[in-house]
Design goal:
By secondary structure, the chain is of the alpha+beta class. It contains 7 helices and 5 strands.
């Protein structure tokens, strides 16, 4: 049986709420029970922080970080996720061409300010293929915590990656359909979607 006790209370910046909230520092510890009565502790207590507002649980180190630090961590996480989304977009057709590789390397540095090299790009492609990760499923999962500005930026990255190696008759049907699906996955209006695509055409990704 696990017994949980509150050790202290206070205020902290909750990453889930995006605001300062009250918290409880709690200790969870397993006990050996005798006739359903906890008698002997059989492990060290596990400390965690619980937000009183959203009930999210965090490692106690969350108390050492302020709002600026949290936002920086979230921004860095977004950049990684946006690059992965662009990589997955190029893999929709199961192949990745040299122009697409060059485009992804440029996108990571210019658009997302998070340069990657060919070795890292190769690892991302390998992991995606081995795990069978689909861009739609990935974006649906990670975009829930993106801001509107981040959603638009990620869309632009995916568009530029998808159009890096246009075929003679334009985008493949699979890539075109996948790009169109991003409007609903990212919860964008038609105008927001079209404006983001138009603005992407002005980027100098070389």
């Amino acid at each position: 049986m696990n017994l949980t006790r509150t050790r202290e209370r206070g205020d902290f910046y909750c990453p889930t709420c995006g605001a300062t909230q009250s918290y409880r520092l709690r200790a969870r510890r397993p006990f050996l029970t005798l006739y359903l009565i906890p008698t002997v502790p059989i492990g060290a207590p596990e400390l965690f922080v619980q937000c009183d507002h959203c009930r999210s649980s965090w490692d106690e180190t969350v108390l050492q970080m302020d709002r600026a630090a949290h936002e920086l961590v979230q921004e860095e996480k977004f950049r990684d996720e946006a690059i992965r989304s662009a990589v997955l977009m190029t893999l929709v057709d199961d192949v990745i061409s040299e122009p697409e590789i060059e485009s992804l390397l440029s996108l990571s540095a210019v658009l997302f300010d998070r340069p990657i090299d060919r070795e890292e790009l190769g690892r991302l492609c390998s992991i995606a293929r081995q795990a069978g990760i689909q861009v739609n499923n990935y974006v649906l999962t990670v975009s829930k915590r993106w801001t509107m500005q981040q959603r638009l930026l990620a869309l632009q990255g995916m568009f530029l990656a998808a159009t890096a190696a246009e075929e003679e008759d334009g985008l493949s049907k699979k890539k075109l359909a996948t790009l169109r699906s991003m409007r609903d996955l990212l919860e964008l209006t038609d105008q927001e979607f079209e404006t983001a695509i138009d603005d992407a055409l002005n980027y100098n990704i070389a």
